[in-house]
Amino acid sequence: MRRMCAVLSLALVALAGCVDGKPGPPGTTAPTGGAPASATMPPVSFPGTSAKAAAVPNVVGMNHQKAQDAMQAAGFYFLTEEDATGRGRLLINDSNWVVVEQVPAAGTVIPQSDKILLRSKKKSE
């Protein structure tokens, strides 16, 4: 036990000796105060999207993977998905699922940067 305490004490002293209070080379110091990094990050943009609006395509009844492809072809890249049965399953293999509902509804004109929810269930259900 004494030996472990001695080793830990030496390690602590060695680490404490590494800090001299002087700043390191430029670009190696941690930021202090100010805005968090996320507040200074530029907004995320998806390829082919802009602030322009477009009509949401009708993908209800389509294979989930093909529905995602159709949404992206129409310029909608902010897609979310969920199990329409309410069982909370993850849609691992998109081609095994069929879209049963979409939000917003087909034909709704929205900015292409808006989120679209695809609710799907397995083909066998």
Automatic annotation (TrEMBL):
Keywords: Signal. CDD domains: PASTA_pknB (cd06577). Residues 56-119 form the PASTA domain. Residues 1-16 form the signal peptide. InterPro entries: PASTA_dom. The keyword Signal applies. Residues 29-43 have a biased composition (Low complexity). It comes from the Bacteria. Pfam families: PASTA. Residues 21-43 are annotated as: Disordered. This is PASTA domain-containing protein. It comes from Actinokineospora auranticolor.
